[in-house]
Design brief:
Order of helices and strands: EHEHEEHHHHHHHHH
Structural class: alpha+beta
Distance between the termini: 58 Å
Radius of gyration: 18 Å
Number of helices: 11
């Protein structure tokens, strides 16, 4: 039994796992778990991941959840994976781990809160929340500032290397792709003060071409749907 990846491509961590597998030509089966249909809450999926979250993998008899753990496992378990993703050099590995640990309570927290409570909540049965949106924006902007001034301060193309991306680059950029759900002027307002972050995002896209755009196809379709809804609201007010 080969590798199975349980994922929803609307989930940013899920996209990171799928892109990693495609870029590195890992043979896998994608099992779609639709969050909007609450398939992750099913008893059947709980047998795969008792935490009822995506992504999750099954590799033979081994089961694993949490995207960063999965990326580390895949990097170390498949011998043909290029070293730059999660290098054998323990000092570089520690830097990558440090960024991934920081990501959960900073960039991911800010981005998720801002986009969810400011845009996506009604689609998932929740209410928009101006206070939560403001708090999310504050964390997001602080996180972008740290990316710009700490890990990208020397105009490095990637977070721990000037040559090739790591699993940290992939995870964090997939997170920031959630900003595509925002109105275009709002997205530009968020990213415009951080030219190094914008360049870094494009570097990761190029390094994972063509799979990055392919895997984000669902996201771009949702972006178009949301924009159509906004346009219809504007038209109805005229």
């Amino acid at each position: 039994m080969g590798l199975k990846v349980y994922a929803d491509r609307m989930s940013q961590p899920s996209r990171a796992i799928i892109i990693f597998c495609k870029v590195n030509k890992i043979d896998y089966e994608e099992v779609k778990i639709e969050l909007a249909k609450r398939q992750h809450r099913s008893a059947e999926f709980a047998k795969i991941n008792p935490l009822k979250q995506v992504p999750a993998i099954v590799d033979g008899r081994f089961k694993l959840s949490e995207s960063h753990a999965i990326l580390r496992y895949l990097s170390c378990s498949f011998p043909a994976i290029p070293d730059h993703w999660y290098p054998n050099d323990l000092t570089i590995r520690a830097k990558i781990d440090s960024i991934l640990d920081w990501h959960h309570s900073n960039l991911r927290r800010g981005s998720m809160t801002y986009v969810f409570y400011g845009t996506l909540a009604p689609m998932l049965g929740a209410a928009l929340n101006a206070q939560a949106t403001m708090e999310g924006e504050k964390i997001l902007m602080s996180s972008l500032s740290k990316l710009e001034s700490i890990w990208l301060k020397n105009d490095s193309k990637f977070l721990v290397s000037n040559f090739r991306p790591s699993i940290a680059d992939l995870s964090l950029v997939c997170e920031l792709m959630q900003l595509e759900f925002l109105e275009e002027n709002d997205k530009e307002r968020i990213l415009q003060p951080y030219p190094k972050v914008r360049d870094w995002i494009e570097n990761v896209k190029r390094a994972t071409h063509p799979y990055f755009l392919e895997v984000h196809g669902h996201l771009y379709k949702m972006k178009a749907f949301l924009q159509e809804q906004r346009n219809n609201k504007v038209t109805s007010k005229l």
